[in-house]
């Protein structure tokens, strides 16, 4: 694992989508660190990253309604159990399910295992509603992928919600998710 202040050196193997995240953050003057690591697909793998990064890595879930007409990017603490019925109730919509990979690629420009609020950069039509669990708001810093799961960003949560999300043309919604 290697930690960089800002983005890691650009290489030929770095994807365009990852590079666009760093460029987006840099153009907006967002301060961040990047930890490069082996692919992290699960929250257990992200827990190891979290220790090296020194910031909680949030769980990001890409969800949709049954008709695939409403899409949500849910951000919550990595250790919090998620139940769709509580989010559906909070949002006042029918039961939600996980969106498929084709919608993930189309709307966020990312693949499974790399879901991140940074994918909102690619949602030019504003079809995805970012949703933040209130428990996440107690963190000063947050860790999330730069649209690939071989790196994790550490940035101020205030910058994510106050600079990054608005710069993508989105407004986020805060919810209080129960865990039973």
TrEMBL record:
Pfam families the UniProt entry points to: tRNA_edit
Residue span, YbaK/aminoacyl-tRNA synthetase-associated domain: 39-160
Domain of life: Bacteria
InterPro entries listed in its UniProt record: ProX/PRXD1 (IPR040285), YbaK/aa-tRNA-synt-asso_dom_sf (IPR036754), YbaK/aa-tRNA-synth-assoc-dom (IPR007214)
Similarity comment text for this entry: Belongs to the PRORSD1 family.
Identification of the protein by name: Prolyl-tRNA synthetase associated domain-containing protein
Organism of this sequence: Xylanibacter rodentium
């Amino acid at each position: 694992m290697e930690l960089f202040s800002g983005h890691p050196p650009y290489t030929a193997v770095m994807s365009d989508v990852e590079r666009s995240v760093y460029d987006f953050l840099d153009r907006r003057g967002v301060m961040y660190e990047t930890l490069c690591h082996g692919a992290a697909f699960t929250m257990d793998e992200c827990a190891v990253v979290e220790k090296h990064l020194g910031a909680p890595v949030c769980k990001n879930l890409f969800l949709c309604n049954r008709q695939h007409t409403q899409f949500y990017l849910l951000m919550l603490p990595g250790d919090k159990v998620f139940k769709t019925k509580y989010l559906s109730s909070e949002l006042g919509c029918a039961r939600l399910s996980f969106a498929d990979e084709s919608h993930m690629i189309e709307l966020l420009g990312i693949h499974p295992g790399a879901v991140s609020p940074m994918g909102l950069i690619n949602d030019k039509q504003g079809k995805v509603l970012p949703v933040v669990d209130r428990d996440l708001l107690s963190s000063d810093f947050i860790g999330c992928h730069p649209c690939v799961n071989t790196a994790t960003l550490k940035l101020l949560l205030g910058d994510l919600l106050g600079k990054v999300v608005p710069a993508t043309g989105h407004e986020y919604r805060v919810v209080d998710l129960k865990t039973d």
